[in-house]
Write a structure and sequence with these properties.
Blueprint (H helix, E strand, L loop, with lengths): L1 H11 L37 H38 L5 H14 L7 E2 H11 L5 H11 L6 E2 L1 H9 L12 H16 L3 H6 L4
Antiparallel strand pairs: 1-2
């Protein structure tokens, strides 16, 4: 009797427990423990049914729809970056993309808005050394609706005009942003060996 109980518990408490995977493949291609069967072990199936054709047609249409949606999204993002580049002369798309990534990284509320502390953290990361009062004044001026936070476009405008351009030449914080984007582009173009030579690791 003891051997039967032991055998039962060994079978029930076998570790690791193998579960059937959640997937969109045919169920008959898997054993009851979730192991994929070899092709010659898989049960034989007849010709495709109407249901199989409907499923295949659905996934083909879904894939085409996703490709079209991704293409439209890419076009919108490129046109948005181009629009912003024309609005902020002296910056390139890399600068705006870098600032967008920083905006998302420092957005502590995850609402697409920066409060004053988030804004100061970005300025510190960019290497700006302006005093607290100057930063607070610029932030409050950019905050049009007076809710204590600035949106992405307000942030771009604020950084670009933090030290207003003179003779169509950017300077101050806007120039720091351009330099940082150029540095990122330069480092991104280096091979692994070149990065080691420059001591980036």
């Amino acid at each position: 009797m003891g051997n039967k109980i032991t055998a039962f518990f060994q079978r029930v408490c076998d570790y690791p427990i193998k579960r059937k995977p959640i997937c969109f493949l045919r169920q008959e291609d898997y054993s009851s423990t979730g192991q994929r069967l070899r092709h010659d072990e898989a049960p034989l199936r007849g010709p495709p049914t109407e249901y199989d054709k409907l499923v295949e047609d659905f996934y083909a249409k879904l894939q085409a729809h996703r490709k079209e949606a991704k293409h439209k999204l890419d076009e919108r993002q490129q046109s948005g970056a181009t629009r912003l580049v024309s609005r902020f002369p002296g910056w390139n798309e890399m600068t705006i993309t870098n600032l967008h990534n920083m905006f998302l990284l420092f957005d502590s509320s995850n609402l697409g808005m920066l409060n004053f502390d988030d804004f100061c953290a970005i300025l510190g990361c960019l290497g700006d050394e302006s005093p607290y009062d100057v930063r607070k004044l610029h932030h409050d001026t950019a905050d049009k609706d007076m809710d204590g936070c600035i949106s992405y476009e307000e942030f771009l405008s604020l950084v670009y005009n933090f030290d207003p351009p003179e003779d169509n030449e950017i300077r101050g914080l806007a120039k720091l942003c351009l330099k940082m984007a150029d540095d990122i582009k330069f480092v991104g173009g280096l091979s692994l060996g070149e990065q080691l030579e420059y001591g980036l690791f």
